[in-house]
Amino acid sequence: MIQLIESQSHHTKIIFLKNENVKNHEHVKLLEKIDFKGKFGQTMYFPNIDTLFVGIEYKLEVKSSDINAKPNYYTLGAKIVAEFENTKINSLEISAIPIEYQISKIIQQIILGISQRSWQFDKYLSKKSSLKKYYDISFGEGLGDIMTIADSKELFALDKGITLNRMLVEETPEALNPNSIQKILKSEFQHYSNATHEILNFDQLEAIGMEGITAVGRGSRFKPILSHITLKPKNQMSTSKVCLIGKGLTYDSGGMDIKTEGHMRTMKMDMGGSALMAGVMKTLAELGGLEHTEVHWISAYAENMVSDNSYKSDDILTTYSGQTVEIWNTDAEGRLTLADALSYATTFNPKYIVDAATLTGACIRAISEYYTGVMGNDKDLIDDISRAFVEQGELAVHTPLPEILRPSVKGEISDLINTSLPGTNAGHLTAGLFLSHFVDQNNFRGDKYGKIENKAYPWVHLDIAGSSYNSKKNDLQTDGATGHGVKSLVSWLKGLDLQN
Q1: What is the rounded CA–CA span in Å between residue 244 and residue 241?
Q2: What is residue 133's predicted lDDT score, i.e. its pLDDT?
Q3: Distance between CA atoms of 457 and 270, rounded to whole angstroms?
């Protein structure tokens, strides 16, 4: 974590250099001795002058079509902390940075990376970690106004949002469950005057027919809930709405199709989608909300556990939309809870729906742990969100939902099946196709949806199974919760808001 302070006498200087700056620097002989050429990400600390030199000369040495191959200043901030993790240094001064274009945003990202790399989940350690939890950061002579007020405010809002995301993902499943999450969210959002929070409990979910949620969670002693937080815009006359949906499986044992040895560990992170949206909402709330857009965040929280009350393969569930789903595997549970949450979101008649979920191992196998899989039913929305990820330096790739695979999720004795037909590959795509049935009211049955015109809502699905939680395959180059996606979704929402 960080705080910005006025420059003081005792601090470690951070000097950013390109190759041309190295040649003209007063310590050129020292730098040349270690072959420091200012290459992006290259760092070297000299204790005798208490200075860290950081390279920012970015040059791709191969011909590439990768649009993500560009400088990542958030990662650069993390590299700075890595240099000082085993030292007592915690006061830093940014003394020189030879960049003119978007300098305020670049400094924001560097400091955000410093803060997030220095954060660690040490709640349960009897001896707290020696990692620095706080860094004092100041600016050298002539750099006092290097950050705009807006970027500085956004820096601290993002820092709180990403920290909340990572804290929720790292928390133990016994401490974070469908009961306790209600108190946690109340504590995080009750202080914002434009935020409201509604909870639908198990009995209410049963009464309105959300069997996708109730079936998955009924095997646990912690009964499932649906959480709905609304953030009103600053312009109270605004009617534009966006719904954010996050998968909230606080623990996934696999249910009756129980996970095999080794695959159950880390399943505390199966609520990473809800944690991502929590981070986005926290950031927006810290900024006072959007100007013109009302943001809804909906997450179903459940534990997928084994008991005499668990749902089973061969069961047929009736979802909130009225569509029926035959269960072929109880470990494909997240899409069932998302089905009801997505259908519920359509009743608010939003402009867009975006969901995030740690949904499939297939997505990791297809695109690796570095990337978020982007799918959906609206090309313009997919392009806008993908562009935000690129701009924020967070890796994401669009994986189209091919109609040729849609029959593989259709049932014979039910409308849908919760996996895909045997022999079908690309499980992340069939999962996305399954979800697409629940943002299209033309598929719904019954009259519970009021007088909203039946239509397919513009929707994007983010599969964050790998990008939400991994081992050093992330911008912070650390283990565990990554906070991936918060920056990008906040950026997309802010850009969308400017269009309203």
Answers
A1: 10
A2: 67
A3: 26
Dig out the tokens for 59 from the structure: 């040059």
- Report field, pTM of the whole predicted structure over 0.90: yes
> pLDDT digits over 319-342, tens only?
999 999 999 999 999 999 999 999
Average pLDDT over residues 130-154: 85
In this predicted model, which residue has the larger pLDDT, 134 or 489? 489
CATH number for the region 2-147 comes to 3.40.220.10
Residue 451 has pLDDT above 70, yes or no: no
For every residue of 367-427, DSSP letters joined together read H-TT-EEEEES-HHHHHHHHHHHHHHT--EEE----GGGGGGGB-SSSSEESS--TT---H
Backbone angles phi, psi at 138, to 5 degrees: -130, 175
Q: Is 241 one of the annotated active-site residues of the chain?
A: no
- H-helix segments, 85-222: 103-118, 149-170, 180-189, 202-207, 211-217
Residues of the chain with CATH 3.40.220.10: 2-147
Quote the tokens at residue 49: 């002058």
CB-based contact 86:481 (threshold 8 Å): no
> Where exactly does CATH 3.40.630.10 map onto the chain?
156-499
Query: What class, spelled out in words, does domain 156-499 have in CATH?
Result: alpha beta
259 is catalytic: yes
From 1-15, 35-49, 86-100, 460-474, the region with the lowest mean pLDDT: 1-15
Residue with token string 């040495």? 61
Query: From the candidates 133, 232, 234, 259, which is the catalytic residue?
Result: 259
Give me the catalytic one of 166, 241, 335, 487. Answer: 335
Q: What is the 8-class DSSP label of residue 457?
A: P
Residue range 20-55, pLDDT digits in tens: 999 888 889 889 899 999 999 999 999 999 999 999
